[in-house]
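It is worth pausing here to work through a concrete case rather than discussing structure prediction in the abstract. The textbook approach is simple: state the sequence, then state the predicted structure, then interpret. We follow exactly that order.
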Amino acid sequence: MSETTYQIRKVGVLGAGVMGAAIAAHLANVGISSVLLDIVPPGETKDRNKIARTGLEKALKSRPASFYSKRSASLITIGNIEDNLADLAEVDWIVEAVVERLDIKQALYSKLEKIVRPGMILSSNTSGLPAHMLIEGRSELFRRQFLITHFFNPVRYMRLLELVPTADTDPEIVAAMRRFGSETLGKGVVLCKDTPNFIANRLGVYGFLSTIHRALKEGYGIGEVDTILGPVMGRPKSAVFRTADLSGLDTLAHVADNLYENAPDDPRREEFKLPEVVRDMVSRGMLGEKSGQGFYKRVKEQGATVILELDFNSMDYVAKSKVRYPSIGAARGYDDPGQRMLTMLDGDDRASQLARETTADALTYAAELAPAIAYTIVDVDNAMRWGFNFDLGSFEVWDLLLQKPAVLQKVFPDGRLPELVRRVQERGQGTFYIGGAGQKQYFDFETDTYKPVPVPEGGITLVGLKAQEKVVRDNGSAALIDMGDGVACLEFHTKMNAIDEGVIEMIRYAVEEGAKQFRALVIGNEAPDFSAGANLFLVLMGARQGAWPMIENAVNGLQQANMLLKYSPIPVVAAPAGRVLGGGCEIVLHCHHTRALAETYVGQVEVGVGVVPAGGGCKELLLRYKADVESQKAGKTGGPFHPVRKVFELVALATVSTSAVEAQELRFFRKTDAITVNRDVLLRDAKNDAIKLAEAQAAGQWQPPKPQMLLLPGAGARLVLEQQVEGMLLAGKISEHDAVVAYHLARVLTGGDCSPLEPLTEQQVLDLEREAFLSLCGMEKTQQRMEAILTTGKPLRN
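Step two, the predicted structure:
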């Protein structure tokens, strides 16, 4: 059977708990229907689907949201295993996500034997039970079509998907699931050997437990550990104890016990013995976030939420201690995660001591275990980065140390290194990875040779293109890069990709000069966020110094650059991912087409800093909602006031989409815009879209838009909006300055002093945006809001 035969169009999900319901939700996110089944509640006669229904309802209410849009929940059909098992006979893939007990899973598999057919994929979402144990006693067909598909929680957001085939699994099923997981579900797929808890949990839980053992032994506090082993060591803020709280201490205990029982030959088996204090916490119901208290506890004090930490000595919750060490302060001075880690590991204080000890533990274990649990070191590194959001994988950290012998000596003072590391030093080139961008190779422990690091099919990296000297022009804030096939990429690379004078200058260059060399343009980058908006610091400094001509020129510059994009003679495709806020959103709104990552969060959030969108955002949203009105039946939309009211609500509330799908519903993206689920292929897909538009243009089937006019409702409509604002102010729902900003927004959206019978040009609306922006910048309360965002990162409601 060929890989193409294994096509997944409909899925059966067995188990409607947290994981099962979330898997069904994510399938719905990508347009795949599923049947979600669970057991019939004991003694239940009326609602036999109650458990599955409850699971779906919880997924719909979950935070963070499991669905891109709640509308897609209609793709999920609920039922129960007793009445609806036969309904699975026609699905292409059955994924089992029931309770982590071998006997329960095997009993369910015996029922599935009756409906399994050739071409059907069978899998388990077990987090640790070995695959060969699950399929004991199963038929040859069942065994050939079975593997483990281990998703991480929360399913929508956690990138890692571990695939664990058995010796009997059809290799074509493995290939099909790798492709489906990557291209359709947007996951980072890692192939694991059939060992207990696979790669990520095996190494990650060891790291957690060995750290907890050390903290208890050496007297480190909970908050102290999380500060030391958080972002300064290339990990999320949740670090160790907070991560355990989020995943659940009962889950941690289950995985630890499973490893202790099923890995009797593990060289560090004793580390998987759960400390008695943690075992006691589990027995007392102190399970972490799900129970309201674990290593941390949230309490209300004087109306504010305060987070306390557990004191291991007294077992009482106490105020979080302020953790300050010279090594942490020094490490925070670096943006590069590798340099932060090296700084921590090279320090001479108590924080550096813990960082060195835990790093030595984790790296040694990874090097000892890698050949037994993984096929390549690349899979190990990807599993740790995608499964735990580490900045660097285990062998990437090894390379940091191998290139800094003095720091390596501090981490391993006895000089004893794992056998795999010695092989890299003696038979390799001294590091696990060699080669630059686009030509990276890894040390293959099977052959002691270097092999190319796998890349997605057709994948494009800007780092790789730069290494090939494909940069056409770079002015420090942005670059124009040749992607090949007549397509250029405009990349921003300021901090947070904030829009400054250099970015605006490069937009102009890309359209005016780039159009002479290329047939299409993509605007995208490889940073976590597309753009956080305008450079707020420069705006605030200009306002405080009264440099109004400078601010006006900057705003006008962005407006005109965006108009150049909109009326560019060649197609312009935006490729946003992550946060697309303020001016970043306005750039996307002016492009001809958008190819967005599914996890894209878009919004005009300017009111949060006391201003209104002024780069054409108001104008473009009005045009998009106006187009909606014109496409609907006359008389049902409320005339020219309907688009104004919709845009006013959207912008005044600083609405940010929670996904690219919701961005389409909010009209930040068009219904015709496209969505990609895998970040690694976003630029590839955007380039392909750009080529299609260029070919359509060459064939006379596409052309840039013609200038548009806007018929806005004028002062009467503005009065209606102002009355709404006054009502909210009187009800205490907004502050006085919120109202001031809203009045300016209402004036822009209704056309200022225009007649409701006389259409405005786009430039006239841009003038209104700019006038309102400048007026608000001159107000002290707006400047206070800007300062608050810059200094605290949090909005000020003054």
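Step three, interpretation. The longest strand covers residues 304-310. Residues 633-637 have pLDDT under 50 and may be disordered.
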